[in-house]
Give the backbone structure.
Amino acid sequence: MKEVLAELRAGDYVRAEGVDTRGHQVIRVGDLLAPPKEVTAQRNGRRERGWRLYVGLAGTAISERSTWVTLFSNGGSVEKTSRPKEGAWSNTELRLVPGVRAGSDKMTFYFGGKGGKRSKEPAEPVVLAGITYTGDGRYEIRDQDTDDVLLTCTLQSQIWWAAAPPPAAEEESAAQEQAEGAAPHLSVVADTLSEVDDDLGRPVAHAHTGKIVGYLREPRHGAGEWRFTPIGKVTK
């Protein structure tokens, strides 16, 4: 265990399995917020030497106990793992969404509805969501724009989610797009809209408002480049 921990650095993206401050088994996924610390912690009703890791959303204070996970020499594990890519969908328990416990009121993610084995893909419409702990082990997933409650669930509930940029990064990106006159944040809507235009391609909707902002035409016969035509340049 010491050898594994020696390879970790603050800022690494990790998946750690161990126990929380009450001795309950937990899995934490996120940024390693500080170097591992050797501690004496509760395990099976007694105190044992182990290593405490602080894992959560980048920028969260390590004083937040919801980031703590303790590993022992013969119990627990930690490994570096891939950071979720923005827009890449996962169907997992809520507890595996990075930062869902620590600093939950500051985090956002794309929510695609309930998950589980029978759910094959995210449900429409996909929205940018935040999360609030309401007590008694219950969480509310809320629409960031309207504050409507989309789902009340527990950490064990299966949901569809995808990583979203931090609010500051999202605002900066939007400001940059507006300054440069770039196209708005887009999402391709394939089968829920009107017939595909043979010349223009598939209708494309704004990711948040759902309004048609243009058309996306895929390469003809598998060759060439994808072409986006803004709605303002559609002449027919």
Confidence is low (pLDDT under 50) at residues 168-198.
